[in-house]
């Protein structure tokens, strides 16, 4: 109970003891829509068959190519890459190229309390984390650095040999210039929904999403 009190507003909503705002309900719809946010495909948002509240993770693995974080000292070496499951810190999957760039899907419970996001902490607002999903492929120049000739250095923290491992399910996919999977209002709505996942005893520590 200390680790999973299930005391968020969303838990109360599922139990019929609370209501969500129109914005939060819209965010839930976009979160679960497989053609939009598609978030619930990995961050399960419905109770389990035995009635256990949703964990907001499938405990799986995914490669999303978060931009390289220059604040990490190891990244000063251009030859260094944190490849997650296949190393360099983890060695039991060394040489398994199909696991390179994959990281564990975290729970989104209490996600609004976090001050850094993804495995390398590159993003520092919840909205940016959601927005990255929406336009990683349609607007890579917004997220990744540019080369001297102006071309975008997309997926700059993952060697090209492992790009086939990248998740391309919605909201990912497409090509530069395509319409992003989510509009700004839809991103805001998802963020509003995610803020309902904060446990009651943590509410005082909640931080703004932007």
What does this structure look like?
The chain has helices at 9-14, 22-32, 126-135, 140-143, 184-194, and strands at 61-62, 103-104. The longest helix has 11 residues, at 22-32. It is an all-alpha fold and 210 residues long. The protein has a two-stranded antiparallel sheet with strand order 1-2.
Low-confidence stretches: none
Number of helices: 5
Kindly report how far apart the N and C termini lie.
Answer: 30 Å
Radius of gyration: 18 Å
Categorize the overall geometry: globular
The overall strand count is: 2
The H-and-E topology, N to C, reads as HHEEHHH
Q: Could you tell me the strand content as a percent range?
A: under 5%
Write the layout of secondary structure elements.
Layout: H1 9-14, H2 22-32, E1 61-62, E2 103-104, H3 126-135, H4 140-143, H5 184-194
Antiparallel strand pairs: 1-2
The gist of it:
The chain is mainly α. The protein contains five helices and two strands; from the N terminus they run ααββααα.
Task: Fill in the keyword field for this structure.
5 helices, mainly alpha, 2% strand, two-stranded antiparallel sheet, 210 residues
